[in-house]
Amino acid sequence: MRFKNSRTFRTAVTALVILGIVLLAFSGFLRPVLGVMMDPFVKAQGWISNQFMAVYDFFTLPREVTDLMAENAELKNEVAQLQSQIIELQEQLSEADILYALLDFARAKPENTYVAASVIGRDPNPFMHYLIIDHGSDDGIRYGMPVVTQQGLVGKVDAVTASAARVQLINDPDSSINVRMQSLNEEAQLVGSITGDLELTMIPSDVDLQPGEILLTSGLGGNYPADVVVGQVATVQKKESDIFQTALVQSAIDFSTLRAVLVITNFNAIDIDLLTGD
Amino acid sequence: MDILLSSILVLIFTSLQLGVISRIPLQNGMADIALLFVVMWSLHPQAKRFYIPTLLAGGLMTFISSVPVPAVLISYVVAAVLTRYLVNRLWEMPVFSMLIITVVATFLQHLLYILMMQFQGSSIPFLASLQEITLPSIFLNIIFAFPMYLLVRDAQKLVYQEVENE
Description:
The complex is a heterodimer of chains A (278) and B (166). With 278 residues, chain A is of the alpha+beta class.
């Protein structure tokens, strides 16, 4: 009796019972009992877990939104940079196209030497029609040199600094060019105006000038080389009483979108003012 | 400080004028933002040294432009002096002054250009110039005058506030 009531005996019995339950549980005999007992616990645990996650999300989600917003901003920035790169590459491609066209033109006329230049500005005075290009005397550009593109005549160099030059366009009011009509082989004078229109003057009244006639430089006067395309006759103005007829000319070049030009550097303009006394 | 700021702004606006504004014509007219800057800067009652940006802008434009030599510089100086003259009389109406001066300065500038160019032998028909170039230019200058006015006013707050604090 004394042994039965002893503390060691109770501990041993408890240990044996626990061991027996554990062995029964591991061997699977207690599964139905455990299932019945654990189900409410699992459900309660699930509910608690869900509630906890809801609270956790409530506190942590704003932080994730902030992270997402930062990431979004970063991606937007990247997209903007890529778009900017695309635009830059398109610009380069467009510039390359222009330069290839100019190169083709230069190859087609090997007798001339050219310096290619980009148009970097226009004269701020609206009465005058001048361009500013990014090459100057350091690149061999001198006063009076003709400026062309693959489409035709642009003008001539009017002023030069070491790294830039100013080009007088053919439609400037002070510009005057001796031209030749391609099919009629007659000569006339092309002058610019403040509005940028080109007018063909000094055409003898007996010449049968028609719209569409191509005009080329004649080379007279020594300011421009011969046979460079200048433009096309748009409308003819003829009065019976006048000695000369006039015509409006469409330039071969759109001066407002001009981006690159070629300066003919082996052509020396001749100043005939000394001979004429002007 | 005001000299430094105005000089930097003159360089920026001159560059913008050549590269951007000159490529945005209305008919054959174009805005002159360097002239507008000179006018707006001179409008401030504290801009006592208005002649520095005026001479700088006029000098730069004279160097770049193909206009007969003194025309641009004279037109800028006339615009600035006219502005200072009106500021002392219309100081309570800066926006009104700004508009009046913009119109008058542009007109005077173009008149000077026409006279100079005719003097040099260019064929410049006066009426055609007025219709095709001067009126569109005045219109463009009025459009550009408002943002320029606000921009210059904000810039001047920096430098003239400092002068007041000193």
